[in-house]
């Protein structure tokens, strides 16, 4: 027996599925009971989340007791102390499979407590670890006896092909865009599969994905990491201009990694969308109007282009109104109010209360994707204008907008109307809904899109 256990590190970015891999590994080890070179069946100790070990000594006793029962089904004795656990474990050949090892990696008390339970019986330790700056530095090439298994990003092409074969043909039809949006990350692919319904359009599926709770949780994680970071530094990450060797502290390594061929990159385009939203809450409303060319440069899919165009037009309208339809009067400003679903009426009342007798216009900016029917609501002196920005040729009716906002407009004695900001080939007929051409609302942006993109989903390189 070796003096020190063999250490196997399983490290990865969010969504790859390393926790599932470790759970399956533990199950297979328990089920198959492969004998080691000494002729003994190993004792498999599986800890699904090491964070639970931080709670108390009793938490360690509980999880060790559960593992003893898994390995010795007829075991029925109480275990109330570390010494009693250690007595049971004495002489066992333990394979320790521990996920979220990062959470206790620097907590020597917990590691010592776990070691006291297992004694010297552990001969293989498999550590599941989330990628962070410390883990990334530890994984840099160096002399080590550790076995390192690193999973960044998502499936390779062959694995992605298998995934497509097991899902509706709809996803194969949109294979290229699906691969770029998700980065072929299993977690994100599962979200697409879950929200898809027979007969759905690609655009509607992408919109529902953005409303999924998994996406919201990813955004919360990014927001927490970048909460204290300066907006300019967040923008540097968002536009993939980070030097990993010298600026790794800027990087949330759960979502970004260094690819041998592509350099610094995000696990998926959807992650860049979420990080953009984090950045937008840290900056002035018009900051994007000087920075947007950098965003378009990184738009690898038409869905991403559409998302960025929507945000750019929103910033442009906040500055100038809708040129040709609802231009901002020279003596007015437009004040932006962000709101979450369910707070429409409260936000509207607050905006009107603050405006009082002043003359500014209001731009209501929903903080959820695909707010009923529209991307924003411009409130002029007399009218609620629900605005939808699209680069598609057609769009579903704005009926959800009118259903939600007509009573609110009436409560302020104001009119209500709908408006699309769209390309020249856009076709839409709906009562009380007008069209403003993208090239008229923001001509410079329209020229850049015409230069960079073909009328397909492929970027001109």
TrEMBL record:
Organism superkingdom? Eukaryota
* Protein name per the record: Uncharacterized protein
Q: InterPro entries in the record, alphabetically?
A: P-loop_NTPase
């Amino acid at each position: 027996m070796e003096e020190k256990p063999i250490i196997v590190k399983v490290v990865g970015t969010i969504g790859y599925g390393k926790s599932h891999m470790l759970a399956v590994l533990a199950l297979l080890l328990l089920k198959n009971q492969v004998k080691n070179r000494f002729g003994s069946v190993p004792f498999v100790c599986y800890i699904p989340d090491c964070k639970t070990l931080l709670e108390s000594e009793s938490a360690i006793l509980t999880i060790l007791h559960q593992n003893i029962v898994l390995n010795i089904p007829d075991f029925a004795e109480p275990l109330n102390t570390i010494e009693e656990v250690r007595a049971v474990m004495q002489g066992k050949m333990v394979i320790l499979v521990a996920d979220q090892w990062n959470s206790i990696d620097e907590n020597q008390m917990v590691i010592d407590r776990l070691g006291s339970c297992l004694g010297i019986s552990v001969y293989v330790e498999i550590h599941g670890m989330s990628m962070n700056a410390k883990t990334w530095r530890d994984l840099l090439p160096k002399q080590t006896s550790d076995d390192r298994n690193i999973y960044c990003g998502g499936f390779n092409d062959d694995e992605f092909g298998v995934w497509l074969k097991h899902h509706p043909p709809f996803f194969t039809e949109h294979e290229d865009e699906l691969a770029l949006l998700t980065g072929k990350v299993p977690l994100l692919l599962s979200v697409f599969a879950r929200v898809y319904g027979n007969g759905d359009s690609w655009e509607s599926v992408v919109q529902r994905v953005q409303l999924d709770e998994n996406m919201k949780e990813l955004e919360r994680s990014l927001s927490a990491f970048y909460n204290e970071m300066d907006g300019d530094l967040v923008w540097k990450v968002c536009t993939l201009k980070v030097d990993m060797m010298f600026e790794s502290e800027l990087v949330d390594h759960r979502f970004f990694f260094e690819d041998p061929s592509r350099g610094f990159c995000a696990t998926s385009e959807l992650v860049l969308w979420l990080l953009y939203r984090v950045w937008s809450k840290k900056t002035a409303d018009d900051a994007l109007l000087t920075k947007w060319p950098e965003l378009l440069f990184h738009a690898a899919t038409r869905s991403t282009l559409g998302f960025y165009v929507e945000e750019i037009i929103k910033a442009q309208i906040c500055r100038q109104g809708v040129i040709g339809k609802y231009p901002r009067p020279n003596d007015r400003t437009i004040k932006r109010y962000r709101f979450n679903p369910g707070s429409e009426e409260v936000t509207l009342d607050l905006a009107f209360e603050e405006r009082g007798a002043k003359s500014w216009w209001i731009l209501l900016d929903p903080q959820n994707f695909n707010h009923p029917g529209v991307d924003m609501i411009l409130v002029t002196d007399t009218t609620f204008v629900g605005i939808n920005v699209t680069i598609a040729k057609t769009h579903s009716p704005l009926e959800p907008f009118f259903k939600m906002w007509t009573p609110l407009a009436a409560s302020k004695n104001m009119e209500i109307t709908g408006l699309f900001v769209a390309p020249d080939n856009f076709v839409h007929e709906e009562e009380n809904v007008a069209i403003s051409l993208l090239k008229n609302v923001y001509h410079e942006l329209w020229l850049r899109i015409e230069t960079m993109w073909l009328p397909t989903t492929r970027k001109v390189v």
